[in-house]
């Protein structure tokens, strides 16, 4: 079919294909073949530079139909299932690569189908854990697991495809935070980030931070990171406030997204310049966004946001020696946890004392690796799906621990450059300026 003819009837063709996709699920080959035809149309539109018609179709023309028969399924359920089947077809790499490259279209269709389903079935008022079935949760988790190897293993073979699906998946999960049980979506994010390794090359580190940046650009990012303190007794709230100052497991359980971002940043700061640059840029841009967000311009609101990032100050203290000049090294030796923050011994080190500072530096790095080695399961305390439904028990699958010594032999403790120092200090000044007067002395 000529592309011009297909474009003229594009909404009709696509809607008919989606109708066949959902009503012929009892036939094993029909849904997959239907998805392959959809994939061909989408790829042809992109090749001809006509992808704007696809975006217009999703926005204006696509209207998911209710199942006409008991055997029929919903579009988001069927399409996600067939995507898994295509990704697992090891014999057809051409189709797999096209699906990865143009995955945005399929994720947008799934997201709109989910939103329409909630509105038409009046399930938007239900608790989030009851909006979608256990089976659909399992399908989404399987889809995520099917995508991970194509990003983390085949990135060099298919750079464009892997980058596109990384961004498309992040955008989709960001949409899911609005529609689904957020604990379940946090688990998906956690599992995806766990697919990356400490020994990953620069490009995969970029993928990881692009993914985190996209998810953290959610319009309600701040509320997603704030636990419901009003639901706790006053004594418990006081005890919890003492956990807000360090990048501890409890902190990450209560503030999952910002905790995950800060932990990945703490690891990136021990890596080479390119990875450090990417991580620092994500943090800086996020804080700039908070500072100019018109919804949070009140002093108390900005103070609460700054409090979320207090562990970032600890990251700076751990790397304080790397901010120093070559001739005049400013050192700041941290006391044990039981010691007061006022007991920090700060001074200018003489040239003769730099050898001991170097020894302290190595010791500090060892404690950093032991104290902040990433345990992916330790962020799941706040990830329990609402209503105790959705994701299966993570206790049995919580063995995804980062081997924190993997990069110890290649970590670079070289001095940070001017851009890195300036960006880190900008972030620090924002936190110190906006934090409430009572929180800073307590820290």
Please characterize this protein's 3D structure.
- Residues 368-409 are annotated as: Disordered.
- One of its GO terms (biological process) is small GTPase-mediated signal transduction.
- The protein has one domain (126-442).
- It has 21 helices and two strands.
- It has helices at 3-8, 10-23, 29-47, 51-61, 75-87, 93-101, 103-120, 134-152, 159-179, 182-194, 202-216, 221-225, 234-241, 249-254, 256-268, 273-291, 299-308, 310-318, 354-372, 418-434, 439-442; strands at 329-333, 345-349.
- Strands 1-2 form a two-stranded antiparallel ribbon.
- The longest helix is centred in the middle third of the chain and has 21 residues, at 159-179.
- It is globular, with a radius of gyration of 24 Å.
Based on the model shown, name its key terms:
mainly alpha, globular, two-stranded antiparallel ribbon, 443 residues, 2% strand
SSE topology:
Elements: H1 3-8, H2 10-23, H3 29-47, H4 51-61, H5 75-87, H6 93-101, H7 103-120, H8 134-152, H9 159-179, H10 182-194, H11 202-216, H12 221-225, H13 234-241, H14 249-254, H15 256-268, H16 273-291, H17 299-308, H18 310-318, E1 329-333, E2 345-349, H19 354-372, H20 418-434, H21 439-442
Helix pairs in contact: 2-3, 3-5, 5-7, 5-8, 6-9, 7-9, 8-9, 8-10, 9-10, 9-11, 11-15, 11-16, 15-16, 16-20, 17-20, 18-20
């Amino acid at each position: 079919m000529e592309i011009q003819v297909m474009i003229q009837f594009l909404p009709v063709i696509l809607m008919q294909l989606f109708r066949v996709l959902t009503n012929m699920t009892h036939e094993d080959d029909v849904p997959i073949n239907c998805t392959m035809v959809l994939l061909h149309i989408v790829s042809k539109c992109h090749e001809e530079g006509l992808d704007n018609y696809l975006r217009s179709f999703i926005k204006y023309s696509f209207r998911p139909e209710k199942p006409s028969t008991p055997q029929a399924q919903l579009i988001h359920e069927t399409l996600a299932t067939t995507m898994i089947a295509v990704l697992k077809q090891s014999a057809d790499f051409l189709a797999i690569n096209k699906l990865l490259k143009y995955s945005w279209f399929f994720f947008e269709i799934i997201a709109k189908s989910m939103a329409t389903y909630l509105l038409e079935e009046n399930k938007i008022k239900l608790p989030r854990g009851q909006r979608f079935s256990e089976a659909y949760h399992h399908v989404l988790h399987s889809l995520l697991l099917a995508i991970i190897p194509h990003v983390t293993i085949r990135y060099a073979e298919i750079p464009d495809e892997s980058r596109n699906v990384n961004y498309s998946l992040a955008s989709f999960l960001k949409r899911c935070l609005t529609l689904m049980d957020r604990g379940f979506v946090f688990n998906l994010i956690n599992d995806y980030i766990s697919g990356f390794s400490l020994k990953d090359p620069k490009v995969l580190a970029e993928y990881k931070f692009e993914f985190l940046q996209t998810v953290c650009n959610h319009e309600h990012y701040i509320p997603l990171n704030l636990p419901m303190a009003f639901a706790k007794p006053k004594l418990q709230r006081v005890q919890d406030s003492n956990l807000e100052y360090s990048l501890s497991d409890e902190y990450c359980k209560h503030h999952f997204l910002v905790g995950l971002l800060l932990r990945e940043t703490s690891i990136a700061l021990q890596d080479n310049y390119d990875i450090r640059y990417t991580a620092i840029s994500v943090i800086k841009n996020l804080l700039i966004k908070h500072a100019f967000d018109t919804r949070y311009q009140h002093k108390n609101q900005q103070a609460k946001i700054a409090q979320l990032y207090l562990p970032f100050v600890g990251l700076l203290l751990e790397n304080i020696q790397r901010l120093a000049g070559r001739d005049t090294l400013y050192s700041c030796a941290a006391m044990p946890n039981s010691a007061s923050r006022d007991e920090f011994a700060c001074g200018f080190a003489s040239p003769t004392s730099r050898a001991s500072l170097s020894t302290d530096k190595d010791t500090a790095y060892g404690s950093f690796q032991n104290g902040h080695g990433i345990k992916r399961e330790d962020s799941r305390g706040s990830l329990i799906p609402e209503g105790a439904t959705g994701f299966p028990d993570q206790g049995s699958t919580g063995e995804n621990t980062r081997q924190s010594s993997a990069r110890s032999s290649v970590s670079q403790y070289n001095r940070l450059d001017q851009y890195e120092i300036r960006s880190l200090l900008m972030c620090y000044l924002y936190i110190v300026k906006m934090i409430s007067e009572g929180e800073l002395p307590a820290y």
